[in-house]
Specification:
single chain, 9-stranded antiparallel beta sheet, 4-stranded mixed beta sheet, 1 helix
Length: about 575
């Protein structure tokens, strides 16, 4: 069962005839909430604890990785003895360990390290260490979320072009050569050439790789005579064998250049350009079969240089146009079917007519059904310089965009580095120092930008099952999101409670984590196969509703303590 509701304050809507049955629970919730009433929280950026940072706190080249509830932050600092600091959070960025030098074992870690990867409980850090006798490439690996580390050498002394960690299998590329390790870097196999024996390795110009689920997909350009030609191939044994013949992305008689290479949960998408424009091809089986003929992006104006991005089904080509004439504009064309067909005319996403110098598109981030584009503007051209960031979000494949009304951070240095686990989005960046802007340094800031993160406080019901409350996508103003309650007693009456975060109160074997504002009365579906009772609730957050709020579910269940099973509270922030 799916319920539709628009989140406006303070009105709720009854969606089930169980009001009388649940009135006592509503009274309980309202009474328990009184001691902790408070205003809606405001969206604030919280500074990572600054213990261990030399004064003034000049940090640079921030790195961020997210895996489940764990968030890892690394950055360089102006301290020759300890050039890299790090901190971690195991509760979705709410609290952080004290900043400390990152020195696993006795190895000094360069402040210019190049990779940070988190996957499950595994964390991998890469850096290149220089000395009077040369340089060496090192990996620090941890299988316990950074509690302990093992340092191992990489297969080469230089920085990799690509580095992947797929369930403990590490893949490393340098130019057209591949190295792999199945024991977390203790030993290496390779080098192996990309694409197999048909690749003209000496003529390879650029390489793009994707490695997940044991499937390695590669796209690259080769110099053929005086022109380039783009190719694709795939391997399922870490580059030992490849498809029998690499796929040429254009006729052999014409030049082609790889523009983008996207891999979504459902498709592999290749974009390239030649003398006549841009083309896209796509595969639904990881590169084994493709469209009968590539699709021309005919709606893309000539002379533009787009960035391609996909939300899993829609493909967008995004570009910026200089003010000749008029304001700076960010525009896109879209394909609703993985790049097979393209709509017209181009969509105006954002325009900016401000004093100072405009920089342009600084980043794209995509989730399933969700795309965010970050635009930055240099808002003054004298020292100290300052950057403003504008966020543009779409949930309908680029038809409409939300969030262009204001800057993310008014006093910002460097590009915010974003990382996500699929349900929430975090970012790390530098704010300018109180001293004049020097060499790109600033204060390190982290913020949980958007999404849902659990608060705890659940109470089990019949059979020991605790109702689980989740949100399917990162909520965005003006777009629908779906609240999903699972694991309750089939056919039971329940409340979906929407409100503000409060200090926990012990209630009926669980914790009340919410000051209710709207209570929605529902009846859970019966079991489907092995799935206990549940309900889906579609809601839309309109502008004017604060960006931070909470949900918690309460299910009448005679098998629960006090007759009520509770979900954990979930804290939600709108992007």
């Amino acid at each position: 069962m799916t319920i539709q509701h628009n989140l406006v304050l303070p009105v709720g809507r009854r969606t089930s005839p169980c009001m009388g049955l649940l009135m006592w629970l509503t009274t309980l919730l309202a009474t328990a909430a009184l001691p902790g009433q408070h205003a809606w929280p405001i969206w604030m950026s919280s500074q990572v604890p600054d213990s261990g940072i030399p004064e003034p706190a000049r940090v640079w080249r921030s790195h961020l990785a997210v895996a489940g509830a764990a968030v890892y932050a690394f950055w360089g600092v102006e301290d020759p003895a300890n050039p890299t600091l790090w901190s971690r959070s195991l509760d979705y960025g709410r609290t952080w360990s004290p900043m400390a030098p990152f020195r696993p074992g006795t190895v000094p870690v360069s402040g210019a390290f190049t990779r940070l990867i988190a996957n499950g409980t595994d964390v991998l850090v890469h850096w290149v260490e220089g000395s009077a006798t040369g340089s060496r490439s090192l990996l620090a690996v941890s299988s316990d979320r950074g509690t302990s580390w093992t340092v191992r050498p990489g297969p080469l002394s230089t920085e990799p072009n690509h580095l992947f960690d797929d369930g403990g299998t590490i893949l490393w590329s340098s130019g057209p050569w591949l190295f792999s390790s199945t024991d977390r870097g203790a030993s290496w196999q390779g080098p192996r050439p990309i694409g197999g024996p048909g690749t003209q390795l000496a003529q390879v110009q650029s390489v793009r790789l994707h490695f997940a689920g044991g499937v390695l997909q590669a796209a690259w350009d080769e110099l053929v005579g005086s022109a380039t030609q783009a190719f694709y191939s795939r391997s399922t044994d870490l580059g030992v064998t490849w498809l029998p013949t690499a796929r040429a992305l254009a006729a052999a008689s014409s030049w082609s250049q790889l523009a983008d290479f996207l891999v979504t949960p459902t498709a592999t998408i290749l974009a390239w350009s030649d003398a006549s424009g841009y083309y896209v091809d796509r595969s639904f089986d990881a590169g084994l079969s493709w469209l009968p003929a590539p699709s021309a992006v005919a709606t893309l104006p000539a002379g533009e240089f787009p960035i391609f991005v996909s939300d899993g089904e829609n493909v967008l080509a995004v570009w910026q146009e200089p003010p000749i004439p008029g304001p700076y504009r960010v525009r896109c064309v879209r394909s609703p079917d993985h790049g097979r067909t393209w709509t017209a005319p181009p969509i105006d996403m954002f325009s900016l007519s401000l004093s100072g110098r405009y920089i342009g598109i600084s980043g794209l981030h995509s989730e399933n059904g969700w795309v965010a584009v970050t635009v930055r503007h240099l808002n003054r051209s004298w020292l100290p310089q300052s950057l403003e960031y504008y966020r543009l979000v779409t949930r309908d494949g680029g038809v409409t965009w939300s969030g262009a009304g204001g800057a993310i951070e008014a006093e910002c240095q460097g590009v915010p580095f974003l990382a996500s686990n699929g349900t929430y989005l975090g970012g790390i960046w530098q704010n300018e120092l109180p001293l004049p802007y020097i060499n790109g340094y600033g204060n390190c800031l982290f913020d949980w930008f958007a999404g849902a993160r659990p608060l705890g406080g659940g109470a089990a019901g019949t059979g020991g099952s605790t109702p689980a409350l989740t949100i399917d996508k990162i909520p965005t103003y003006g777009f629908d999101s779906e609240l999903q309650l699972r694991g309750g007693l089939p056919g039971a009456a329940a409340i979906l409670s929407f409100g503000t975060l409060r200090s926990p109160i012990a209630v009926l074997g669980g914790q009340l984590r919410i000051d209710p504002v709207v209570n929605l009365f529902v009846t859970l579906d019966g079991p489907t196969g092995a799935m206990p009772g549940g309900v889906d609730h579609s809601f839309r957050v309109h502008f004017g509703v604060p960006a931070d709020f909470c949900w918690q579910a309460f299910v009448l269940d005679p098998g629960a303590s006090g007759g009520v099973a509770m979900s954990e509270g979930i804290e939600v922030r709108v992007y």
